[in-house]
Amino acid sequence: MSAGWRRKVRREWGALTGGPLSTGWWLTKAGIRVVFAEVVFMGLVLLNSEMAAVEAVNSGDASVFSLVALVVTTTDYLAIAGIVFVVALLLPFLPRRNEATNRWE
């Protein structure tokens, strides 16, 4: 990988291990990123495969927590949620493509 990617990893790692304030801010940003990714991706998964449960929540017959319970008690959904969690947590450390130069950074 390029020097830009190494600088990016060094900067993120420094923010994570730089003290209680920077670690707290990094974990806050990571938590927001993880929650957003989980809501979006698991929402799409549930819309695709558990439409009856989503319709029950939409009509008011069931609580949103019933969808959370469905995800936690179903191994396939739990595995998908775990993968989304890991990717969203590690996203700042992954290289990205520079559109101007079409190279990885």
Question: How is this structure best described in words?
Answer:
76% of the residues lie in helices and 4% in strands. It has helices at 3-17, 20-49, 51-59, 64-73, 75-90, and strands at 97-98, 103-104. It has a two-stranded antiparallel sheet. Helix 1 (3-17) packs across helix 2 (20-49). The longest helix is centred in the first third of the chain and has 30 residues, at 20-49. The chain is elongated. The chain starts with a helix and ends with a strand. The model has no long low-confidence stretch (mean pLDDT 86).
Coarse morphology: elongated
Give the beta-strand count: 2
The helix-strand sequence is: HHHHHEE
Mean residue pLDDT: 86
Q: Give the oligomeric state of the chains in this entry, treating copies of one chain as homo and distinct chains as hetero.
A: single chain
Q: Count of helices?
A: 5
What structural category arises from helix and sheet content?
mainly alpha
Largest sheet: 2 strands, antiparallel
Low-confidence stretches: none
Report the helical percentage. over 70%
Radius of gyration: 18 Å
Distance between the termini: 7 Å
Query: How much β-strand is present in the residues?
Result: under 5%
Strand order of the largest sheet: 1-2
